[in-house]
C-alpha cells in the first residue's frame, strides 16, 4: 500500500500581487517542476508551524502562516500526497535558493505557464479563480 504524506506549501504574495514560485532542483524528487515552498509535516507538528519551519530551512526567510487556502489529495507513482496550501505573509528577510534551482515572483494569471508538480494543479487553478476580494491583504490595502 502506498504511504500518504502530508505536505504543507505556502502561497506568499508580495505587494505587486505576485506569488512566489519555486523550481525543484535536478537533485530533488519531482525534479525541474515548480512548487510552492514548503515540505513534509513531522509527526505531531502543527501545520502552520511546520510551514514556517520548512520555509526558513529552504529559503532562510521568515513567514507567518495565515490560513489554509486549498487542500487536495494526489496519487503519485510511489506515494500519495495530501497537499495543504496555506496563505502566508513574508515577515522577515529575502527568500534564498538554499535548495531550489530558482525562485520567481509571478502574477497569478501567469501561474499556468509553469510546469507545476501535478499535485499543485488544483491549487493553481483555485488561485486563478480566486475572487479579487479574497486576494492578499497587502494588495487590498493599495486599492
Ligand atoms: N514543498 C512542496 N512539495 C510538494 C509540492 N507539490 C508536491 O507534489 N510536493 C511534493 C514534493 C515532495 O515529494 C514532497 C515534499 O517533500 P519535501 O520538500 O519535504 O522533501 P523532499 O523534496 O526532500 O522529499 P523527497 O525527496 O523525500 O520526495 O511533496 C509543493 O507545492 N510544495
Automatic annotation (TrEMBL):
Belongs to the Nudix hydrolase family. The lineage of its organism: Bacteria, Bacillati, Bacillota, Bacilli, Bacillales. GO terms for biological process: DNA repair; DNA replication. Keywords: DNA damage, DNA repair, DNA replication, Hydrolase, Magnesium, Metal-binding, Mutator protein. It catalyses: 8-oxo-dGTP + H2O = 8-oxo-dGMP + diphosphate + H(+). It comes from Oceanobacillus sojae. It is an enzyme of class 3 (hydrolase). Its cofactor is Mg(2+). It comes from the Bacteria. Residues 3-129 form the Nudix hydrolase domain. This is 8-oxo-dGTP diphosphatase. It holds the Pfam family NUDIX_4. GO terms for molecular function: 8-oxo-7,8-dihydrodeoxyguanosine triphosphate pyrophosphatase activity; 8-oxo-7,8-dihydroguanosine triphosphate pyrophosphatase activity; 8-oxo-dGDP phosphatase activity; 8-oxo-GDP phosphatase activity; metal ion binding. Its EC number is 3.6.1.55. The keyword DNA repair applies. PROSITE patterns: NUDIX (PS51462).
Amino acid at each position: 500500500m502506498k504511504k500518504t504524506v502530508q505536505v504543507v506549501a505556502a502561497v506568499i504574495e508580495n505587494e505587486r500581487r505576485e506569488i512566489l514560485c519555486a523550481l525543484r532542483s535536478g537533485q530533488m524528487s519531482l525534479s525541474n517542476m515548480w512548487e510552492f515552498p514548503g515540505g513534509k509535516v513531522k509527526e505531531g507538528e502543527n501545520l502552520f508551524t511546520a510551514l514556517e519551519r520548512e520555509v526558513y530551512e529552504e529559503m532562510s526567510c521568515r513567514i507567518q502562516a495565515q490560513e489554509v487556502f486549498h487542500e487536495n489529495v494526489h496519487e503519485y507513482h510511489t506515494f500519495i500526497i495530501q497537499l495543504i496550501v496555506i496563505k502566508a505573509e513574508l515577515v522577515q528577510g529575502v527568500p534564498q535558493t538554499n535548495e531550489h534551482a530558482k525562485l520567481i515572483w509571478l502574477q497569478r494569471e501567469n501561474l499556468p505557464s509553469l510546469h507545476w508538480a501535478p499535485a499543485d494543479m488544483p491549487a493553481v487553478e483555485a488561485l486563478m479563480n480566486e475572487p479579487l476580494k479574497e486576494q492578499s491583504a497587502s494588495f487590498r490595502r493599495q486599492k
